[in-house]
Amino acid sequence: MELDKIATGMWVESSEGLGRVLAVDKRDEMVLVEGLHDEQWAVPASSVNQDDQLHPGCDKYY
């Protein structure tokens, strides 16, 4: 995903799983993501995808 389209608080999918963006590091092009069970991981911005079927406050597909 393009770095300028990633925002704090948005739900994304990555190789590590589903989570919410906590921070975006534009210098290193990395994204800090918090998973559903409070785990955190950093992934390259290019490896995350926004999931349009997820909404803030809801971790289920509709």
TrEMBL record:
Taxonomic superkingdom: Bacteria
Name of the featured protein: Uncharacterized protein
Biological source species: Vibrio superstes NBRC 103154
